[in-house]
Design goal:
six-stranded mixed β-sheet; Rossmann fold; ABC transporter transmembrane region fold; 2 domains; alpha/beta
């Protein structure tokens, strides 16, 4: 647990120590004021009360600083752990059929629990184990060594009691985490499949599954709350009632022996409350610690070594376009192959157009090239080297059929691809994407608000802005999924011109919506029913009697 403490957490612990010492000395000063009053020493009364007031004010100030630190630390920890976990998820090879609900649970509730554990439990727990030592030291020096020694025996029990409850409740806590992840997974899968469930008339059955998972979780949460109340009850009984009673009893006995003054008895009672305060915080945040620490232990192996290690952009690590080869590639969704037997080689800087009717497997194939779907057979080579899913995700940038723009300006959406890009580089990318004139005509240029999902821009502008963003990424391979779909003829021509300009500087893989826009490509791959029908230069395929020649003769080929 000490290894988990960050530097900022140590700051909060240090502030707690300062506050504890200030209050302890202030309480001793109050006791001294009582003794001075009994002795009739008016000046000493004033001196001790002033000292107690100043120390109390200092303690309150330190308490405010200590209380403000955990929320800031929790926000930082949550951001850091979620970022690490996202990188770990992206670094893993996709496994067909693997439910995403477990990862959703980790990235939401799991990360929040880890952040709460590291920010609000670790520091107070360390303070609970160490601050009483400072109080006892003040008590031994300023009040009585015997009273302090008796209380030491009770303080020593704290870590043993906490450890005992953690062992007892460990299995129940694991059950809670499992049920919480299952409920989140069921809910996520139901939302993702809602359209299909409606078509199949299975929404009631899916709802029942979610309800059962939620009910199991509700029962476990109720049990967890009961166990937490038991922990609080034991904590209050052992360390509140017993400790304060023992402190008062021993102090009164020592007063009867003439070893402790009346002011010393009062100071002992006040100091005993300080002994219980941090222990009480541990009892009330017990499950925060248990749940967060368990989640951290589960996540730690996932994020170890998850830092990206992309393959080189070229055969000798130089930047620039790279060749892409697909050798016998097969892609499955569940137990069914959706793409099989694909063999094609795209030279560095070349352009491959993938065409075929709806359901031919085009989207599944490009998802495999992007590293988003695992290949069940065959190999994908980049620059002559076999590339895994993690390599592909670092080498390939994508312009999806429906690009997403975030709330923010045009410049902010472009800099998602490269945060250090200058304004000149942004304009260059926009010019190559045939969007510079449009942005110049906007009210605030690069600072024009794009709007979430590009609601402030036309469909063609959104598509070209996504292309400019892909250009800024400097990825050697670009995948464009139907970049001219749903565009008017003028905008389609602009986008096609942008793609032609990119040829030679990037290796392009384009899923074509309209076959007449593929004439500029070096190669055309024709898919039908998941299989490779033909591959070759567009002018060669246009002279054959196959699918490409027939479909491309139509003025509007809505494939």
């Amino acid at each position: 647990m000490l290894r988990d403490l960050t530097r900022r957490a140590w700051v909060a612990v240090g502030l707690t120590w300062v506050r504890t010492v200030c209050l302890a000395v202030a309480y001793v000063a109050v006791g001294g004021a009582v003794d001075a009053a009994r002795a009739g020493a008016a000046r000493e009364i004033v001196t001790r009360l002033v000292l107690a007031t100043l120390l109390g004010a200092l303690a309150v100030g330190r308490a405010g600083l200590a209380a403000a630190e955990p929320p800031r630390l929790q926000a930082r920890e949550e951001l850091a752990w979620r970022g690490r976990l996202v990188r770990a998820f992206l670094a893993r090879d996709p496994v067909p059929g693997t439910a995403a609900g477990r990862w959703v649970s980790r990235l939401t509730d799991g990360v929040e629990r880890v952040a709460a554990y590291r920010a609000t439990f670790l520091g107070p727990t360390l303070a609970a184990f160490t601050a009483p030592t400072l109080v006892l030291a003040v008590m031994a020096v300023a009040v009585d060594e015997v009273v302090a020694a008796v209380l030491v025996g009770l303080i020593v029990l704290v870590p043993f009691v906490v450890s005992f409850f953690m062992r007892v409740f460990r299995r129940a806590n694991a059950t809670f985490r499992r049920l919480a992840a299952a409920a989140a997974g069921r809910f996520h899968e139901t939302l993702r499949s809602l359209g299909t469930l409606r078509l199949l008339g299975a929404t009631d059955a899916a709802r029942d599954v979610v309800v059962r998972a939620s009910e199991d979780l509700r029962r476990e949460v109720s049990g967890m709350l009961r166990r937490n109340q038991l922990m609080i009850l034991v904590n209050d009984a052992l360390f509140s009632v017993v400790m304060i009673t023992a402190a008062v009893t021993v102090a009164l006995l020592r007063q009867a022996e003439g070893e402790v003054t009346a002011g010393g008895v009062l100071a002992t009672i006040l100091l005993a409350t300080l002994l219980h305060e941090p222990i009480d915080k541990v009892g009330r945040s017990f499950y925060v610690g248990m749940g967060g620490r368990a989640q951290q232990q589960e996540m730690a192996p996932l994020i170890e070594g998850s830092a990206p290690a992309p393959v080189s952009a070229g055969p000798e690590g130089t930047a620039g376009p790279v060749g892409v080869e697909l050798r016998g590639v097969e892609v499955r969704r569940g137990d069914r192959p959706v793409v099989s037997g694909v063999d094609v080689s795209v030279p560095a800087g070349g352009a491959l157009a993938i065409v075929g009717p709806t359901g031919a497997g085009k989207s599944s194939l490009v998802a495999a090239v992007q590293g988003l779907l695992a290949t069940s057979a065959g190999r994908i080579l980049v620059a002559g080297r076999e590339a895994g899913a993690n390599d592909l995700r670092h080498l390939v940038s994508t312009v999806p059929q429906r690009p997403f723009l975030f709330t923010g300006t045009v410049a902010e959406n472009l800099r998602i691809a490269r945060g250090d890009a200058t304004d000149d580089e942004l304009w260059q990318a926009l010019d190559r994407a045939r969007l510079a004139r449009d942005v110049l005509a906007m009210p605030e240029g690069l600072d024009t608000a794009a709007g979430e999902a590009g609601v402030a821009l036309s469909g063609g502008q959104v598509r070209r802005l996504a292309i400019a963003r892909a250009l800024l990424s400097e990825s050697p391979v670009l995948v464009l999924d139907e970049p001219t779909a749903d565009l008017d003829r003028r905008t389609e021509d602009l986008v096609t011109a942008s793609l032609r300009d990119m040829a030679g500087t990037r290796t392009l893989i384009v899923v074509a919506h309209r076959l007449r826009t593929t004439g500029w490509a070096d190669l055309v791959l024709v898919l039908d029913r998941g299989g490779q029908v033909a591959v070759g230069p567009p002018e060669v395929l246009a002279d054959d009697d196959g699918y490409y020649a027939v479909a491309s003769t139509s003025e509007e080929t809505p494939w």
